[in-house]
Model the fold of this input.
Amino acid sequence: MKIPDKVYDILKWIALVALPAIATFYGVLATIWGLPYGDQIVPTITAVDTLIGALLGVSTYNYNKTKTYTPTKGG
Done:
């Protein structure tokens, strides 16, 4: 599975920043203000985030596996 660089960067930002922030934000507001389905929405967001992270990890592994190692002079 090969993901274009731009898509990879966007998905990585979503997985590392956006979804955890959204899950935390909604979870806190649901507790404070009694918003609906907090117990269902937060774990769902976390599950989607975990899936995206796993797919990005597989993509990164496959990308790095195909790269050829070329030693540099002096190190």
Summary: The mean pLDDT is 92. The CA atoms of residues 1 and 59 lie 6 Å apart.
